[in-house]
């Protein structure tokens, strides 16, 4: 039997690779009443073969002949003999029928009665005792067993102190979660270990910030606060120069500075947190613009206003990694298992310039001294200074500059991802994954505590449902990831280890990281394939703050469509991003926020359970339960339905939109001898394949397991086949042409296309041809895979 347990056990580490000794522990229970028994190697399996009777005649032939002989001897009373013969024949026929029926039922243990009306177009679910359980009953069961009481207590227990990867606190917490999974008596529980290179603050030299005079003498040292405030994977060393305010540090911000004639070369940038870009993207843009270093601060304009906490907000510095990628940056594209001895390499996403988080108070001190052009419209934050200028000069004296020093150190750390699974009863080799990061630089109540608490509660709830009659069709996988603060390192290393099989095994991934940063608005950062699922569940779940209203009705009451308000694109620093952009797995991350802004203490030393609970007005448990219910209902659909409820037609509109963009530039393209016809043809092929599959599913008997498996195999491959096969996973890890990063993506091609009108001299025809070819053949490959018949696809080639 192809089970998730045998899929993910992996191989033991090589004993010859020193000093990286890895201990892997996998536990399997011997019975429901015994303690877990440690196993090493493959587990024992038993196979039972059911032998069917050849026919009813085989059962009755011998007995019938004996009865006939007996009757022939009783010539004296033929009527009595006929009566007995008839009675015995009837008894034999009834016995043979019952034996055949029992044999048939034993060979179809999970068969169910199909003439009962189905609920919500979902097939019934066999309870194990001859009954039928429908989707409506499963929803009620989920709501019955999902509790909020333990969510707050788990968050408080996890956020008592910081617990970074490799620390004693982190290892203790990992052991506690492993024990929790074992106490739930999950079908399988195990750990997956990696060595990864992480960056931490130096123990001997603190990061520093000074104001220098024209002679390079130190005029003033500016204290940076806690030594734990830092940017992981920053470049190290010092940077000295003028100060330039770059707003959010987006590409368009640097373009605007260039248009204003501001000299940024060698300067130190001061950037605001937010703006839809990660710390890594801010540093990347600054490095490409020629700046020497980056200071990043939280502006009060971007956080919820609370006069009682203004002083605390102003003194907080937000730590975050600055690797433009995910996973171990020294093993890009391949797993950091002990036995994978790849040659030394380094991610191209590692910055070369230093980066350091600072508080709003420090930013105010620097920005209030800037001279130069006035800030563009929209750049004015809410710092207490009179004039907003962009620099690079300082008004406190001619020739004065800023020097920053970053002295972080790299360190190899043993990471442990913790897994628990509930095995599916019909398709155990397909699994739905729920995960949350466990580690945190600070207390991490919102960053790691909430997600872990919801993960444990979902595991307990689904296990209780199984004990009360729920038989999931597909397997459920619950994972506690390590080193999430460093760029989803634990999750990405696992993805890299199983990349070749994920597109046939992983149905979807749900990230629980940072699920509660407020209590007003729900955001779903998601792959479009899962958008229909979120639409269904928000109509069923009550809004945690607005009693009597579902999340859907409350969102619609605000005057805009639910999709524009709730559905958001995946972003680089999301816990779900790598699953889709790197692994080709549909993924989603749910999050409640406050208005348009979020809880301001994530990734700070102030991220405690008390502050989070205070902002939520005591509703932490209720909000956690709402997130659990939303995720749980989507997981139920994926684990229960015969046909996977993923929208394969979602990318047709994306391809159509790009085709219309190409049409706008048709005259410019034709003048250069370029034709978009190949893209149009590939788009048409994908659209036809998606619609044909959708129609075929609607007109098929979904109870036919052979047909169901064929359709599901094609659906599972959709996201994976949008990973470009023409770029290297090592050099360009985010290969998805729609959600990824790099020259092969639709975004890069669209930006290049716009140069035909905005700046034709920068348009590179050879580069554009390559970009267009990569996109076209990736789209064509996705269409071929979705069609199911690559040889007869109707195309215009």
From TrEMBL:
CDD domains xref list: M28_TfR, PA_TfR
All residue ranges annotated as the Peptidase M28 domain in the record: 417-618
GO terms assigned for molecular function: transferrin receptor activity
InterPro entries: PA_dom_sf (IPR046450), PA_domain (IPR003137), Peptidase_M28 (IPR007484), Peptidase_M28B (IPR039373), TFR-like_dimer_dom_sf (IPR036757), TfR1/2_PA (IPR037324)
Region: Disordered, residue numbers: 1-20, 27-60
Segments of skewed composition (Basic and acidic residues): 31-42
Topology versus the membrane: Single-pass type II membrane protein
Chief site of localization: membrane
Organism of this sequence: Synaphobranchus kaupii
Keyword Transport in record: no
Pfam family, one: PA
Family statement: Belongs to the peptidase M28 family. M28B subfamily.
This protein's name: Transferrin receptor 2
Cell location: Cell membrane
Gene Ontology annotations for the cellular component aspect, listed alphabetically: external side of plasma membrane
Transmembrane segments: 82-104
Keywords: Cell membrane, Disulfide bond, Glycoprotein, Membrane, Receptor, Signal-anchor, Transmembrane, Transmembrane helix
Gene3D superfamilies (UniProt xref): 3.50.30.30, Transferrin receptor-like, dimerisation domain (1.20.930.40), Zn peptidases (3.40.630.10)
Recorded superkingdom: Eukaryota
Ranges for domain PA: 240-305
Record lineage: Eukaryota, Metazoa, Chordata, Craniata, Vertebrata
BP GO annotations: endocytic iron import into cell; transferrin transport
